[in-house]
Amino acid sequence: MQLTERQRRLLDLTFIDYHSTAEFLENPLVIDRADGLYYWDTAGKRYFDSIGGIFVAVLGHGHPRVMKAMQDQMAKVTLAPPLVSITDKLLDFVEMLGSVTPGNLKFVKPFSGGSEAVESALKFARQYYKQTGRPNKYKFISRYYGYHGGTFGGMAASGNGARKSKFEPQMSGFLKVFPPSHYRDQFASWEEANRFAARSVEDVIIQEDPSTIAGVLLEPIGNTGGIITPTNEYFEILREICDRHDVLLIFDEVITGIAKTGNMFAAQTFGVTPDIICAGKGMSSGAIPLGAMIAREDMAEAFRGTPEQGVHFAHGHTFAGNPLACAVGIAVLEEVIESDLCAKAQRLGEYLRNKLTCLKKYGVVREVRGRGILLGVEFVKDTKTMQPFPELGKEFKKTAIENGLIARVDLSWFAVAPPLIAEEGDIDEMCSLIDDSLRAALNRVRG
Ligand SMILES: Cc1ncc(COP(=O)(O)O)c(C=O)c1O
To answer: Residue 105: CA atoms inside 13 Å, Cβ hemisphere, count?
Structure first.
């Protein structure tokens, strides 16, 4: 689309997240409205939103149930100062979210997005250990290629140098290991690479001194590394290592949460119970900023005491537990449960996986991976050498937008997670846009 003079001028007064404005201007997108599975730009062009905004709109855009819940709440109260008050809506949300988590993860604090949830989990873990007789436990182990938010704690835990080096020095106490994908070509099987990657976490814990390690933080399915999807055994090994060394296992489920992987949380999909879950994105289906930190109920005991003891969680945000956001969060969970969208994510995910696997006909697809409806496709130059194909990703990003498709496209891979209101026919439409865009991108790359 063409930008107007005014749009171009005003674009210089803001910025595009993690991208240069010059790159954005190669294929600018100014959204005017959204409905269900589609966006429309200000020039009236329609786009299939294969990624629910950015892993957010699990119920599509403007879902009637969500809009109604928001309107009802608007008529009552839209802010209750979290420094001194709560609302029944917040308590209802705490109860409801705690009822769909694995294990006894029932201690819930709603926030305004993923970064706040991660930041809070890091602070919660450190304070927890200080108040339970293990004050030296303060270090976190996370993974290269991971992303945990744009704030200082989340950034320190993230594993992408290009997004971090400009802000050094980073916070201290953040260590890294590689995810299994880093080792996959060094082992005979994916399972072996996963075992090695999981055990490498214990090597770091031991060398650093277990009495200094507070937590292992990771995304169950790693988005920024290209939908890195470990085996169930990887998590089994991690859980056992964390238990043995008294280390908290913290899942960043900002992307994987809320039905996408075929269960409410990926923890349930992989059959492991972490100690803390950080959630965001899909919780509001995009209607309002919402995230949450969800911890083991028994951990909350450490924060109970008199004002003089000062053991309460020393943390807060003005919009934490906002009643409007909580009303939306409840409506999303109700819809997911009543319409059995976790089962739908499994069923529709299989259908989508089969269709994406058909892209192998072009000879440039190494693998389709992910769980449920959250799937990624990795590009390679050819399937013998398995060399990455960054030129293809770059072109595909452009051809997708030109063809009216919004996806998460990176250099050598792309990801989709269509809203769970989609049916098979919608998946067909989406996959035909993917196919057309990939063919056009290949033609351009191959000249
Ligand atoms: C895995 C993960 N964690 C945390 C965040 C940060 O969430 P937010 O952008 O809502 O602050 C993101 C955002 O993309 C994410 O993908």
So the answer is: 27
